[in-house]
Specification:
Among the domains are: about 55 residues, no CATH class; about 200 residues, no CATH class. Helix content is about 70%, strand content about 0%. It has 14 helices and two strands, in the order βααβαααααααααααα. The chain is flat and about 100 Å long.
Length: about 475
C-alpha cells in the first residue's frame, strides 16, 4: 500500500510578507510542484484554518470519461418520460384546437365534416362493391371453380393446402374487384378528387380495406371455419368459428388504429394529438388481444396438443400448451408499454409489436404447412409403391405358427417421414424466431454481431447432429 503524505503550509495573513521574504514565491511553487509529481496531496491553509485554494489532484480522470450506470439511465429516462407526458397532457386543449385549425385549412370547403363525409361515402361504396363482387364474381364465376375442388374427405396437407391457397387468392381477387368497383362508381358520382388532403384520406381508407380483407382471408385459410374437412388445426366447428370472429374483429381494429394514427402523423397535425391518440387506441387493441387469448385459451391449447390430453403428449408439448397464453399476454403488454414510451418521448417507432406477433405466428404456420405439404408429396410415391408390393398372405393351412410379439421401437420415430415432420416443426420454430428478431431488430444489428454468428453456427451443427 502506497502512503500519501499531506504537506500543510500555513500561511497567516498577518505574516504573509515576512513568509514570502523568507521562503520566496519561487521556492513555494517549486515545493508544491515536486510534491504533486511525487504523488503527494498539497493543501494550503490560510490564517483562519481553512483551505486557501483547491487541492492539487495529480492525474485526475477527465469528466468526459464518466459513464452512468444502467440504473441511473433508467431513472433519468423515467423522469424524462413523466415530465414529457405531463407537458403533453397540459397542452392537450391547445393541441386539439391546432388540429381543428389545420383540418379546416386543408379541407376543400373549410369544414372538418368533409373528411367524415369522405369516410362515410367510401365505406358505403365498399359495401356496394362487396355486394357486387358476391353476386357477380362470387356466385357466377368463382363458385364454380371452388365447388368443383371441394372433396368430402381430403387427406392431409397434400389435398388440403392447394384448395386453401387457391381459395385465399380468389379472395384477394374479389377484394381487388370490390375496390375497383368502389373507385369507378365513386368517380362517376363525385367526379375526380383534386384536393390533396382528400386524396390522401381516400388512399388511407383503401389501404385499410385491402389489409383488413387480406388478413380476414388469411385467417379463413388457416382456421377454415365453414369447411371443417379442410381445417388443419384440431379445432371443433364452434371453436374455429369463434376464434375466426375474434381474429377478424381484432385485426380490423388493429389495422384501423395503425392506419388512422399514420394518417394523423403524415397529415402534419400536432404531435401531441398523434402520440396521445395512438397510445390510447393501441391500449384498446392490447386489451382486445388479451381478451381474445383468454376466451380462446382452451381451444388453442387443445390444438397445440393436436386434440390429445395433456397426459398423452410429451412434456415439451404439454408445457407449450399451457405457457403460450401468459407469454403472449406479457408480450402484448410489453409491446404497448414500449410503444407508449417511444410516442411520449418522440422516438422513432418501429413495427408495432402486436402486429409483429401476428407476423411471427403467420411465418410459423406458413412454413410448417408448406414443408409438410412437400413431405407428403415426396413420401406419397413411397406409400403407393408399398401398397402395390404388398400381397395378401397365403393360406397357411394347418400349419401353426407361434405368434411373435412385435419389438418396441427404440425411438418414437420409426421412419424418415416421421423424422421429416419433426424437422418441419423445428424449422417452423426457427422461422418464427427469425421473424421475431426482424421485428425487434429491423436494422439487422444483432445478426451481424460476431457472437450471434457463432451462436448460429453452433445451432446449425446441433441441428444437423440431431437429424443424424
Amino acid at each position: 500500500m502506497r502512503w500519501v503524505c499531506v504537506v500543510l503550509l500555513s500561511v497567516f495573513a498577518a505574516q504573509s510578507a515576512a513568509a514570502q521574504d523568507a521562503i520566496g514565491t519561487d521556492a513555494l511553487s517549486e515545493a508544491i510542484r515536486q510534491a504533486a509529481e511525487n504523488g503527494m496531496r498539497v493543501i494550503v491553509v490560510d490564517g483562519t484554518g481553512g483551505p486557501a485554494g483547491a487541492a492539487v489532484e495529480p492525474e485526475l480522470a477527465p469528466a468526459d470519461d464518466y459513464r452512468p450506470s444502467a440504473l441511473m439511465r433508467m431513472q433519468e429516462s423515467g423522469a424524462t418520460f413523466r415530465a414529457t407526458l405531463a407537458d403533453r397532457l397540459d397542452t392537450w386543449d391547445s393541441s386539439v384546437n391546432e388540429v381543428a385549425f389545420i383540418l379546416r385549412a386543408t379541407s376543400p370547403d373549410g369544414r372538418i365534416m368533409t373528411y367524415v363525409e369522405a369516410l362515410f361515402y367510401t365505406v358505403l361504396l365498399f359495401l356496394a362493391g362487396r355486394v357486387f363482387t358476391t353476386q357477380v364474381f362470387g356466385k357466377r364465376i368463382a363458385r364454380g371453380f371452388v365447388v368443383a375442388r371441394i372433396k368430402a374427405a381430403p387427406d392431409g396437407y397434400r389435398e388440403k393446402m392447394p384448395f386453401l391457397v387457391f381459395r385465399f387468392f380468389l379472395g384477394i381477387v374479389g377484394t381487388l374487384i370490390t375496390m375497383v368497383f368502389a373507385y369507378t362508381v365513386g368517380l362517376a358520382i363525385f367526379g375526380p378528387v383534386e384536393n390533396t388532403s382528400l386524396q390522401f384520406t381516400i388512399a388511407a381508407l383503401y389501404t385499410a380495406y385491402f389489409a383488413i380483407r387480406v388478413v380476414s382471408d388469411l385467417w379463413r385459410m388457416i382456421l377454415s371455419p365453414y369447411l371443417s374437412q379442410y381445417r388443419i388445426p384440431r379445432l371443433s366447428d364452434r371453436a374455429a368459428k369463434r376464434l375466426y370472429v375474434w381474429a377478424v374483429v381484432i385485426a380490423t381494429l388493429d389495422i384501423t388504429v395503425v392506419i388512422f394514427s399514420t394518417w394523423l402523423h403524415d397529415f402534419g397535425l400536432n404531435y401531441n394529438v398523434y402520440a396521445i391518440v395512438y397510445g390510447a387506441l393501441a391500449l384498446l387493441v392490447t386489451l382486445g388481444n388479451v381478451l381474445m387469448v383468454l376466451f380462446n385459451f382452451s381451444a388453442i391449447s387443445n390444438a397445440i396438443r393436436n386434440g390429445r390430453s395433456p397426459e398423452e403428449v410429451s412434456w415439451v408439448n404439454r408445457f407449450l400448451s399451457g405457457a403460450w397464453a401468459p407469454a403472449i399476454i406479457a408480450y402484448f403488454i410489453f409491446g404497448w408499454l414500449e410503444l407508449g414510451f417511444d410516442l411520449v418521448l418522440d422516438q422513432p417507432t418501429s413495427v408495432p409489436l402486436i402486429a409483429g406477433a401476428y407476423g411471427v405466428l403467420t411465418s410459423i404456420i406458413v412454413v410448417y404447412g408448406l414443408i409438410n405439404y412437400g413431405i407428403e408429396r415426396v413420401f406419397e410415391r413411397n406409400r403407393l409403391l408399398k401398397q402395390v408390393n404388398e400381397t395378401p398372405p397365403e393360406d397357411p393351412g394347418d400349419i401353426e405358427v407361434e405368434a411373435v410379439p412385435p419389438l418396441a421401437p427404440r425411438h418414437s420415430m420409426t421412419n424418415f417421414e416421421q423424422l421429416a415432420r419433426r424437422v418441419s416443426g423445428i424449422l417452423a420454430f426457427v422461422a418464427g424466431a427469425y421473424a421475431l428478431v426482424l421485428v425487434w431488430d429491423s436494422e439487422n444489428r444483432l445478426m451481424t454481431g460476431s457472437v450471434i454468428d457463432r451462436a448460429l453456427d453452433v445451432i446449425v451443427i446441433l441441428f444437423i447432429g440431431y437429424i443424424v
